[in-house]
Amino acid sequence: MKAPADTQKPTRSQHITRPLKKAAWWGLRGVVVLVAAGWVGLKFVPLPPALLRPAAQSVEFTDRHGLPLREARTEERFAREVALKEVPQNLVRAMLAAEDKRFFEHRGVDVVALSRAIVGNVRHGRVTSGASTITQQLVKISDPRPRTLKTKVLEAARALRLEQLWSKDQILAAYFNRLDFGNMNVGVAAAADFYFGKPLSDLSDAEAAFLAGLPKNPTRLNPHHNLARAKLRQMTVLERMRDGGMLSADQFATAAQEKLTLQPRQRLFRAPHFVDFVLQELPDRVPSTIATTLDLDLNRFVETTVKERLAGLREKNVRNGSVVVIDNRTGDVIALVGSENYFAPGTGQVNGALARRSAGSTFKAFTYELALEKGATPASIVADVPAVFMTNTGVYRPENYNKHCYGPLRYRLALANSLNIPAVRVLGNIGGAATLQARLRAWGMTTLDQPAEHYGLGLTIGNAETRLIELTNAYAALARLGEWRPYRVVLDSALEKQRDSASSTTLAAAHTSQTHDAAWLIADMLSDNAARAIGFGLHSALRFDFPVACKTGTSTDYRDNWAMGYTPEFTVGVWVGNFDGTPMREVSGVTGAAPIMHAVMEQLHTRFGTTWFATPENVVEREVQPLTGKLLTHTRTDAVREKFLRENLPAVESPEDYDAEGRVKLGPEYRAWIQSGENGVAARALCDTKDTTLRVEAPLPGTTFLVDPDLPSSRLVPVRASGTAQAVWESESVHFRERDGRTYAEVSEGVHRMSVRDPATGARVETWIRVKTL
Description:
Blueprint: H1 12-36, E1 59-62, E2 68-72, H2 89-99, H3 111-124, H4 134-142, H5 149-165, H6 168-178, H7 188-196, H8 205-213, H9 227-243, H10 249-257, H11 272-281, E3 289-291, H12 296-311, E4 320-327, E5 332-337, E6 356-358, H13 364-373, E7 381-384, E8 389-391, E9 394-396, E10 407-410, H14 411-416, H15 420-429, H16 433-442, H17 452-455, E11 465-467, H18 468-479, H19 504-510, H20 513-526, H21 533-536, E12 549-554, E13 560-566, E14 570-577, H22 594-607, E15 619-624, E16 640-645, E17 664-666, H23 671-675, E18 685-687, E19 695-698, E20 703-707, E21 716-722, E22 728-731, E23 735-739, E24 742-746, E25 750-757, E26 764-773
Parallel strand pairs: 1-3, 17-18, 20-26
Antiparallel strand pairs: 1-2, 4-5, 4-14, 6-11, 7-10, 8-9, 12-13, 13-14, 15-16, 19-21, 21-24, 22-25, 23-24, 25-26
């Protein structure tokens, strides 16, 4: 037995048609109200600003030497504005037949066509046709918006207003000059030239109908990809012309049988990713010729190098790469390659120079530079031993890329070999992620948009994203010895849009004498091929016959490779990987990106010449003990020479640094490492058990803990101190309790300050935490 009619479930067709009917009713009602208003109130309807400006003209881009790169509209199009009288009548008739046969009869909105379209759409239960007039389409292409009912009504109102202000000939002329015919051709003149290689006046009826059909869907009707579909559309236009009396039967027959010969002109399309990028950087109004910063010959060399190097990595699932080269003196981008092949299907047009990718170890150079600014030296010692760090997101255990630790290391070696654990320790010593983030943002990094605690100490080893062009420009700041400036892509910087970066005041403050000296030392450390031998050997792609500062980076699972290289004159940045994020097969920065960087830097050295940084007057060399970093008082066979600022020499060694047998005394943090089988200093060092420096190991200051009310154990925060035989924990807001031989703070929501005291010495160290409830 059937259910009563008012309780039956609606059919799928009803599900579709009911909303359509409702939308159609209100849409038609809105338009009818506008038309019936007899233009009342339309004077308050604003027209799209772009419609009131001349159609964008053709712009020629050249490289820095005047060599042509591409001719395009500023909105990535090619066009020449024509007067209506230049458009032949057969093309006018074809366009009216294809898009708006009652153009000269309506006032901007064709109510007859609109009503017919609504009825047809409701009947079929889906949108089968539209009823936009040429005037409405002109409004739409002048101010593209999401296709909603509200947009339709707004466009209708604007079309009515436009017909009040402009004549039909003005509207039609503007339409012909702004219409998209596909393949970067806007305007009828560009379309006739591109598809048929002829001026408008020479178009046949068949060619006019063919062109008039393309704007309906320039992508799907692209004749170079789907000629059959484009010709079907052409026949539809010819039939409408015949049925509308625009073509006689004989003219229709001739046009229908005419064989079309497409003659696309091969236009200049050099340095495609770079020109695309320049187009994004330009303001609305530009001159007819724009001289860019690009060196075309260099860019061609880079393009070839990327293709050749990536071809040898195919078996390791490496499919793409990007390169940026900056002239450090001016900030000019003199080469930019966004992918291996701009025309490759799928991802070819992705610009890897602008894509956000995991930074890997590339931020380490800035971490150590900041440490040197704050008083560290290349001989400062950092403990490369297994470590656990308490962070706001929990316990953090960094590992070195080769799972091996090297014990006490000078900063020079730790940076040159890109070791993770030392970098994390150094960042913790200089103030944590906030310190590094502030410098990176001041030097143009726009991707670090999360609070510093989101990244934590892992920021220095690549748990954040960067863009190749911004990273390369930040390294260019190191190459200028601490002076950051915006990169530029056109020689007339007044043409570039302003990029969001730090204020000039902040930048000026950052470029101090300390920054200058620290950056010089970083360049010296990164150019030291012997220093990086532990991790990279002596014959890697980072070795040059002339001085170059080099830094590589590899993200988790080999998803991103980086290689940065700089001299006083040039900075080269390279990224290698896959745009879809799939991992490469054990391809690191030194084997993937570095060979490309090496080849490009060699080319720069050969073609332009490179130099090296003059040694500042306040830099001196001294011999130090390699395990302590202290100045030697007597000759030792294991002594190493290191560079220092004259006013910032390290401490001098003392007898207390050695035991009776002459072995170096190391702190308690080295105990487990000394006893392990991986250390290489057992014969030269031992663990000093007399170190009584009181330290809070956990929790670190500012750590945030989350408490789950359903889990009482989550209220227990482990506390740990070193450097004392008896740690006494104190706080005014939390209680401490022992459990399973460990000490815990029993916490509640809020901010809590606590301290640990050594009763034997009276030393006290404070820390604080924040507790939140889930």
